[in-house]
Amino acid sequence: MPARNPRPRYAVVGLGSRAQMFVRALSETHADRAELAAFCDVNRTRMAVHNRTLATPVLTYDAAEFAAMIERERIDAVVVTTVDRTHDHYIVEALRAGCDVVTEKPMTIDGDRCRRILDAQSETGRKVTVTFNYRYNPVHAKVREVLASGAIGEIGSVHFEWLLDTRHGADYFRRWHRDKANSGGLMVHKATHHFDLVNWWIDSSPDTVFGLGKLFFYGDENGARRGLARPYARAHGEASAADDPFAIDLAGSPTLKALYLDAEHEDGYHRDQNVFAPGVTIEDDMTVAVRYRSGATMSYHLTAYSPWEGYHVAFNGSAGRLELDVVENSFVEAAGASRVAGQALHGTEEAPSGSSRLTLRRHWEKPVELDLPDAGGAGHGGGDERMLADIFGDGGADPLGRAATHRDGALSLLTGLAANRSFETGLPVQVDDILRL
Q1: pLDDT of 372
Q2: 3-state secondary structure of 315
Q3: CATH number of this structure's domain 9-130
Q4: 104-136 CB burial, b ≥16 within 10 A, e <16
Q5: For residue 332, what are the contacts with CB-CB under 8 A and spacing of at least 6?
Q6: Residue 143 has pLDDT above 80, yes or no
């Protein structure tokens, strides 16, 4: 195999909004260590939008030209930010072409696709990095440090409640994520973040999962039952969407207009679907119980229609308890679509005001509120920039082991995939029945 380039040449496949941070990192922040060489997407308009942000535009390739792009542009590594159901296609093809891969989470959406990726990585020996930016949030790193120190002893159980508000949570029901065949549902697309954190925090992996999930708030039936339904399929150009707090005005956001509204003529994708229209096949209210191989257990709940956004995590140990409370957004303003549009790109614009508190409660001692590092910056508590520095720059030695591999990507999926099966069967699921690692 030929020697790798001293400044690896990267291609980005999938040029939606999430690609922005990777394009910026490769073309600006870390351009001294990595070279952005090409774009690949099903939509040429979106690629042109990203190219306009570059001092030197790169060549663009249609999705069908992916393999040819790798060869012609001498690509060393591929960044995958496509629709979740296609991740495995691009990851496997890139690996077998001799490239390393950086992929957005979730690594994929089901056990068969995951096995394809693991087999291709084993065959080629190439590197797969999964972008779990939550590991790089300084608050989450502090949790890992405290647990690893033995401050609460052996961990017996974890309680994790995650609340998505009616801005961020609703956005999954406007987009392609609303179809489980595309995203695996929120147990895979969103909760894989959290399941990876717990695996990393307690240094274990899931063994048995039981879950109950339902579509309680969004969808056409729920909208009609509660009087929330509006007579539009997508918001653009619809008078009935103008004052709908669940709608999004693509024309009101320059970024959304350029990436989606102006690109519709190529692929017909509507970024502004009605959250109470037919076609929602994912759950919005999920309860999961997990037993880990270490013997610890977890109760997990995700709500996607909360009036505020944040999370509460509690670790119960043989010597005490550690509690993390995070408020990411204290409320959502009841305004129409134009207001929602300005907040739609979660994690890519200015961070909402919030607060974090970490409390240590040891047996026979008064509780102590631990000092937390300043996360700084937007983008998942500053995690995005720290992660990008680790991937593309010189992150240096990391005693916390935050870089996530293909194996971490697979382990993070197991809880969500098993929960989805349990939703269907009503029975507990052994994760080895989903995927043996």
Answers
A1: 93
A2: strand
A3: 3.40.50.720
A4: bbbbbbbbebbbbbbebbeebebebbbbbbbbb
A5: 165, 166, 167, 245, 307, 308
A6: yes
* Residue limits of CATH 3.40.50.720 in the chain: 9-130
Residue-wise pLDDT for 247-299, tens only, equals: 999 999 999 999 999 999 999 999 999 999 999 999 999 999 999 999 999 99
Q: List residues bridging with 213 in a β-sheet.
A: 286
CATH number of 134-218+280-379+404-433: 3.30.360.10
Buried b (16+ CB within 10 A) or exposed e, 358-380: bebbbeeeeeeebeeeebeeebb
- What is the rounded distance in angstroms from the CA atom of residue 90 to the CA atom of residue 96? 10
Token pair 């999430």 in the structure block, residue: 18
Distance CA(360)–CA(73), nearest Å, equals: 53
Among 171-185, 334-348, 393-407, name the most confident range.
Answer: 171-185
Contact 289, 211 (CB under 8 A): yes
**Cα–Cα separations (whole angstroms), residue 206 to 152, 238, 264, 344, 412:** 21, 46, 41, 33, 9
Confidence at residue 347, expressed as pLDDT on a 0 to 100 scale: 43
Distances (CA, A) of 436 to 164, 216, 291, 371: 31, 33, 16, 40
Tokens read off for 196: 């990876």
Q: Strands across the sheet with 404-405, in order?
A: 59-62, 35-41, 9-13, 77-80, 100-103, 128-130, 404-405
pLDDT digits (tens, 9 = 90+) for 167-224: 999 999 999 999 999 999 999 999 999 999 999 999 999 999 999 999 999 999 999 9
285 CB-contact burial (10 Å; exposed 0-12 / middle 13-18 / buried 19+): middle
Q: Is the N-terminal amide bond of 106 cis, ω within 30° of 0?
A: yes
pLDDT at residue 335 in the model: 67
Of 254, 257, 252, 256, the C-alpha closest to 336 is 252
- Alpha-carbon Rg for the chain, nearest whole angstrom, is 21
Tokens linked to 252:
């009101």
**Residue 250 token pair:** 């693509």
Report the distance separating Cα 234 and Cα 197, nearest Å: 35
Q: Does 59 score more than 70 pLDDT?
A: yes
Cross-strand partners of 325: 312, 357
pTM score over 0.70: yes
CA 269 to chain centre: 20
Is 220 strand, coil or helix?
helix
